[in-house]
Specification:
A hairpin with a 5-residue loop joins strand 5 and strand 6. The chain starts with 6 loop residues before the first helix and ends in an 8-residue tail after the last strand. The chain has 9 helices and 19 strands. It has a 6-stranded mixed beta sheet. A 6-stranded antiparallel beta barrel has the order 14-17-16-15-18-19. It is globular. The chain folds into 3 domains: 160 residues, 2-Layer Sandwich (Gyrase A, domain 2); 80 residues, Alpha-Beta Plaits, CATH 3.30.70; 117 residues, Aminomethyltransferase beta-barrel domains (Elongation Factor Tu (Ef-tu), domain 3). The protein is of the alpha+beta class.
Length: 376
Amino acid sequence: MKRTPLYLAHKDLGARLIDFAGWEMPIQYTSILEEYRAVREAAGLFDVSHMGNLMICGEGAEDDLRNLLTNDIKGIPEGRGIYAHMLDNEGLIIDDAMVFRILSKAYMLMPNAATVSRVEEWIMEHVQSEVTNVTDRIVTLAIQGPRAASILQKLTEYDLSKLKRMRGAFITLQIGEDAQAFLPEIFQVDLPLAGIHSYVMRSGYTGEDGFEILIEADNSILVWNAILDAGHSYGLIPCGLGARDLLRLEMGFLLSGTDFNGEQSTLQTGPEWAIKWEHQFIGRDSLLKQRDKILTKLVGVELLEKAIPRHGNIIRVDGSNIGMITSGTMSPLLGKGIALAYVNEEFSMPGQELDVIIRDKSVQAKVVRLPFIGKR
C-alpha cells in the first residue's frame, strides 16, 4: 500500500489504519462519532493526500478542460474552482473532481485516489496542454468545521474572510523562519514572506466551512503539527476517513467507486448543475440521447423505522425489486438511517414510499431531497 508523508504522524497519534484505494489511511484516531462531532461543532483536521493532483498548463488549457468536463470553466477568474464530471465517449463517469484555476494558464485538477492513473491517461489522450502529475509531491490537508477559519487565521497574515466558497489563493503560513516555495518551477509566484508557501482553497467534503491546503510533501509534518497546536484550544482534533464518510453522506456527496463505478452517467447521479449543456464536451452527445430514456437515478432515502441501511441492500416497491443502496449509515444529526440509492426513475420523486430489505426484514423508507441535513 502507498503511504502519505504523514504516515508516521498518524501512527504516533494512535490512528487505526486501513487500506483505502491502495493507500494506508487513518479510518479513525479515537472514535468515528467523536471525530464527526468535532467537525460539526468545532473543527477537524484530515490528511487527504491520497487524492490526486494533476496540473494542466499552457495556452490551450482552458479549451482542453472545457472539452473534458461536464461543467464549464470558460472565463472563470484566477482563484476560482468548480466541481465537474469527466465522462467517456458513452457518457459514463470516469471520475468526479474539483478543478481550480490557480494561475492565468494553470489549472489544478484533483481526481479521486483510485482513478488518478485512469484520469491522467484519459487527459493525456485528449489534450495538447502540458500535463504534470504532482500527486507524490503534494500533501493535502483539510481543516473543516465552524471554527476552521479562526484556527487557520492564527497561522497567516492573509485575511481569510476574503476567501469565499470555492475560491483559492497562494498563502504563506507563518511557520518556521525561512521561506519555503511551493512547487516553484511550476508556480512562478512571488511570495516574499518568511514561512511555508501553500495554495489554500475554501472547499471541502463535509458540508461545513473549511479549507483544503496544498503544501509540498517535505513541509507536511511541520504544517500538520502547527495546525493541531493552533486548534487545540478551539476543540480541533485529527479525524479519519470514517468521520469523513459520515459527514459527506449527510450532505449527499458522491463517493467514487461506491456511488458510481464507471457504469453510470451524470444524468443518473446528478447533481444537475454539474452539466452545462451550452458547451461541447466528451460524452455530451451520449447524454443527450439518454435524456428521454427511462434511467435509474440516484436518490436520497430516509428510513422510517430504526435500522441502518448498508451498501447492497435491495429496495422494493409492492414486492418488486426497483433499486439498490450504494451508501448507507445512521445519521448522528438526524438520528435516522439515511442512504444513497439507485431506483427506477418512476420511483425517484421525493415522498415515494419504499421498502429497504435489511437482514431479510422489510424496513419502511421514503425518497427525500438532498442534502439530508440541509446546506451548512
